[in-house]
Automatic annotation (TrEMBL):
This is Mandelate racemase/muconate lactonizing enzyme C-terminal domain-containing protein. PANTHER family: D-GALACTONATE DEHYDRATASE (PTHR48080:SF2), D-GALACTONATE DEHYDRATASE-RELATED (PTHR48080). InterPro entries: DgoD-like (IPR034593), Enolase-like_C_sf (IPR036849), Enolase-like_N (IPR029017), Enolase_C-like (IPR029065), Galactonate_deHydtase (IPR023592), Mandel_Rmase/mucon_lact_enz_CS (IPR018110), Mandelate_racemase_C (IPR013342), Mandelate_racemase_N_dom (IPR013341). GO terms for molecular function: galactonate dehydratase activity; metal ion binding. Residues 126-228 form the Mandelate racemase/muconate lactonizing enzyme C-terminal domain. GO terms for biological process: amino acid catabolic process; D-galactonate catabolic process. The keyword Magnesium applies. The keyword Magnesium applies. Keywords: Lyase, Magnesium, Metal-binding. It comes from Cryoendolithus antarcticus.
């Protein structure tokens, strides 16, 4: 048993925020608190948590989680839960490393040997999906995801939906499974139409067909299509997911381990989902620490079915210097994809070795990543 001696955070490209915790005996753990486009807000919360939790017993992960969540009075939300996620993931890593076992051993052991994964194609304005899908196939992927559309008006021409159907048909013709991410870009008048148009072509799932702030609309869409509906990157606690379980409107949940309070809360959300016969496919277009944490859940949770990974994602490669999942770890081979799967990570802690020298050097010059946006032909703001 040893108290937390030091909490540090590092802003690194392309848009990630890493957290390092050191206890009084020198044991170390790494977490990820990335909240895309809101880095400074999370850093401010981490500053407060540093004051609050330095000296707190590092082994008591659940006690720290409850203290951070319940004593804040204002609970949940993306900023608080992302900062808490960074601490939580780092503490699980620290504890498992100290014991010389993978995190999944502390979660009850593994329920599978390999974890199915998928990668992104198409970018924010989806294009050239055939060539990109073939590239992913060559990398070992059998499943992928792409944005459904560019920006779409509240009530737009039905013709803007045609390209989404053609892209899905193109990818399916290559023998790959494909999920289609609506990204909350469509409002109900258009989302209803697109869900119906895609259905005959059997997408793996449709993601965020509407924003989660419209649970009644998602329930309506669920009744209109047999395609599985996925949701959850903008939900941050088990209480946020609760109404979607209760109205039976989602088939796949996608909590983000860096947004939802870390390993501790993601595991609880997964257990809730299992009681409603809902699959788990964690959202993770983020860095190697977040991915490694997700893979610990993937190894140990029965209803985990597929894992997003950001290998070669446009957000990574578009940044000057070219950063990717391998850039800040010394054992990137643990993320190797074969036959659409990644092997369960065997190493201690999260199963990755962070290149601390590279992290510290990159953090000296990294600026906050800014949220992009779309503006329609009329000059009005559209959902991004």
């Amino acid at each position: 048993m040893a108290p937390i001696a030091k909490i540090e955070y590092f802003r690194v490209p392309p848009r990630w925020l890493f957290v390092k915790i050191t206890d009084s005996l020198g044991n170390v753990g790494w977490g990820e608190a990335t909240l895309e486009g809101h880095t400074q807000s999370v850093e401010g919360t981490l500053d407060a948590y540093t004051t609050r939790f330095t000296g707190f017993e590092a082994d008591n992960i659940e006690a720290l989680w409850q203290d951070a969540y319940r004593k804040s009075f204002y609970r949940g939300g993306p900023v608080f839960m992302s900062a808490l996620a960074g601490l939580d993931i780092a503490l699980w890593d620290l504890k498992a490393r100290k014991l010389g076992v993978p995190v999944w051993q502390l979660l009850g052991g593994k329920v599978r040997d390999r974890i199915k994964v998928y990668a992104w194609i198409g970018g924010d304005r989806p294009a050239d999906v055939s060539a990109q899908a073939l590239e992913r196939k060559a990398q070992g992927f059998t499943a992928l995801k792409m944005n459904a559309t560019e920006d779409v008006g509240w009530l737009d021409s039905p013709s803007v939906l045609t390209s989404a159907v053609e892209r899905l048909k193109t990818v399916k013709a290559l023998g790959m499974d494909a999920a289609v991410d609506f990204h909350g870009r469509l409002h109900k008048p258009m989302a209803k139409q697109l869900a119906k148009l895609l259905e005959p072509h059997a997408p793996l799932f449709i993601e965020e067909p509407l924003l989660s702030e419209h649970p009644e609309g998602i329930a309506q869409l669920s009744a209109l299509t047999t395609t599985p509906i996925a949701l959850g990157e903008r939900l941050y606690t088990r209480w946020d997911f609760k109404p979607f379980f209760e109205n039976r409107s989602v088939d796949v949940i996608q909590p983000d381990i860096s947004h939802c309070g870390g390993i501790s809360e993601l595991r609880r959300i997964a257990a809730m989902a299992e009681t409603y016969d809902v699959a788990l496919a964690p959202h993770c277009p983020l860095g190697p620490i977040a991915l490694a944490a997700c893979l610990q859940i993937g190894a140990s949770v029965a209803n985990h079915q597929i894992q997003e990974m950001s290998l070669g994602m446009h957000y990574n490669t578009d940044v000057e210097g070219g950063y990717d999942l391998h850039s800040f770890v010394t054992n990137p081979e643990v993320f190797s994809v074969r036959d659409g799967h990644v092997n369960v990570l065997p190493g201690p802690g999260l199963g990755i070795e962070v290149n601390e020298e590279a992290v510290r050097e990159a953090s000296k010059i990294t600026k906050p990543w800014e949220i992009k946006g779309f503006v329609g032909f009329d000059g009005g703001l559209r959902e991004w």
